Amino acid sequence: MPKITADIASFKHPKFAPLTLDFTFKKAFANEQSTELLLFLLNTFLERVLKKPIIEVKIIHTVQLGRTRKKRGAVFDIQCEDASGARFIVEMQVEEQKHFIKRSLFYLCMALANLAKKGRMENRGKKIPYDYNIPIVYTLSFLNFDVNFGENCDEVMQYISLSNEIHPEARYDLVHLVFVRLSKFDKTEEECKSDIDRLLFIFKNAHNLDKVPKIFNKPVFKQLFEIARISNFTEEELMNYESDMKRFSDHMNALAYAKEKGVTQGITQGVLQTAKNMLAKGFSVADVLKATNLPREQVRALKRA
Known about the structure:
By secondary structure, the protein is of the alpha+beta class. It contains 8 helices and 10 strands.
């Protein structure tokens, strides 16, 4: 298996469950009875794009339906709204996905389309038009893999929003996409100076720790560790956690096998092409055998072809 972030798939007896795992992440931040951790998460990572701190949030249904029954739905880890009606979509993505930014835009557009108030016909033929005064929508995506945001975009935090290309100072406070690349965060415990640093350190390293480090003395951090402490799980939670870990481990093993097989096939094709090129340039079979280590009969077959 290739080395993955924090190597969670190979960990045998951790004290704390990985917070990048779907089960643990939702257990910590999608708790409708206690939203303190969710508020802390949102205010910490969205501080740069928020007009003011979020005071309260309400978790809403995580499935955003399409416009018709045949249209597919988008399933978010967490979807919530604040008192002003602003919407927040939060995802933890451990498994690498192609075109992830486009995927995020697709789901964002789906959410926006469902926020517009549909027009209708009233009595006596009076038509009420669509109301497009939709609330601000924020997406917060934690990525446990790297995504190319462009040349020299090496920061952990990436922000995407709408602006005027001719007058970039003119920005439109309609949508904000915030991406957090866990793969780019490599600070040690001593180097963590901000709440963003400490949360990222927990996400990447909690399952490798035997105890809670002293730097996490805020109650909110202690609460997060207690939620992730496996000995605190109920029997049902333990089953869900182990099922999630098995699924993730199987996925990573499948990726490792596919990568290994692809590399092997690539090497083989490269060696064969080298042999063909050498033969075409007049090199002897003996020279090709020495350079490529291919079987003699295979080289002779290439020469006859």
